[in-house]
Design a protein that fits this description.
single chain; 309 residues; mainly alpha; 79% helix; 0% strand
Length: 309
């Protein structure tokens, strides 16, 4: 019962923000132009600030996280590459395949994962949670973006691709954050407070944008929601369970093992939704998966908590 209460308390505020966006749309207070503006803010300011804020708080403290980083990295990369066989087997369009790079690999390890882990295992797990969040963000904003850029319909222009990656604010924030961590750089207090202000706003901004998007579009056919349900179950139960079987007998420290599995079972994160809008991918599919998987988290997260102990 305790695990269920933790899940409900963590998930419910997310749905309230989404509902607010839907309400603004239904009352004609918000329009489609809001989505582009809010997502540009998230991609250019909010998410980069969140990445920097997360990495600034990362304290290695002499702990060995190499196994944690390697294991999680392998899982994330394999999940991304699964988009290729899935697209071929199910005869999916290229846009859906590009969306799968994001859907299969990136759970809500920051907004949902960190609170769930800390409420379940205490503050001692926060460094592990921060490392995991950094690993997920790194691969999403490097390999994930590269796969999207290189699998488009148009012919690959290597020069344009490199230039596009170099000016991407999300990638810049990842590498800037890594420099801060590696060289133990302390930013001026005023800079830290500014970054924290921006990072604290992005969750509500993206959820509100998602609510506006859902409010502007039709509910969709049952088949479309079933597809969202199937993919939600895949990313929260099937893939994490295979991951669990693969590493359960490894030498990984117990707390790291539990955090790794629990984070792999998180619902779809908000960054994939923002990226789907930016790259004009299958936004309806991604938005439905965010909603369905977050709702399923109320049941699935307690299941994993019980299984992991």
């Amino acid at each position: 019962m305790g695990a269920f209460i933790i899940s409900v308390k963590t998930v419910l505020p997310l749905f309230l923000v989404i509902f607010t966006g839907i309400l603004f749309t239904r009352t004609k207070a918000a329009s489609v132009s809001w989505i582009e503006i809010l997502n540009k803010y998230a991609l250019w300011i909010g998410f980069p600030a969140l990445v920097l804020a997360s990495l600034m708080k990362l304290e290695i403290n002499g702990q060995n996280y190499s196994g944690l980083i390697f294991t999680s990295s392998v899982y994330i990369v394999v999940c991304m590459l699964l988009a290729y066989p899935m697209a071929k087997v199910f005869n999916l369009s290229n846009r859906v395949k590009q969306s799968l790079f994001l859907i299969l690999s990136f759970g809500n390890v920051a907004y949902l994962g960190i609170p769930v882990l800390s409420n379940t295992y205490g503050e001692k797990i926060l460094p592990i949670a921060a490392v995991l969040a950094a690993v997920y963000v790194f691969w999403l904003l490097t390999l994930g973006i590269i796969l999207i850029e290189t699998s488009g319909e148009s012919r690959i222009d290597l020069k344009r691709l490199i230039f596009s990656l170099l000016k991407n604010p999300l990638l810049i924030s990842v590498f800037a954050g890594l420099v801060i961590v590696v060289f133990d750089i302390t930013l001026p207090e005023i800079a830290e407070k500014t970054i924290l202000l921006f990072s604290g706003s992005v969750t509500a901004v993206v959820l509100f944008s998602l609510g506006i998007f859902l409010g502007l579009h039709k509910m969709g056919k049952p088949k479309e929601w079933f597809n969202a349900f199937f993919l939600s179950v895949t990313i929260m139960l099937i893939l994490p369970f295979l991951f669990y079987l693969a590493i359960k007998n490894s030498a990984m420290e117990a707390l790291q093992f539990k955090a790794t599995i629990l984070d792999s079972a998180m619902p779809l994160g908000l960054t994939p939704y923002a990226l789907a809008v930016h790259y004009e991918l299958e936004v309806p599919l991604v938005s439905r998966i965010v909603v369905v998987s977050t709702l399923l988290a109320i049941v699935i997260i307690p299941f994993w908590m019980v299984l992991l102990g």
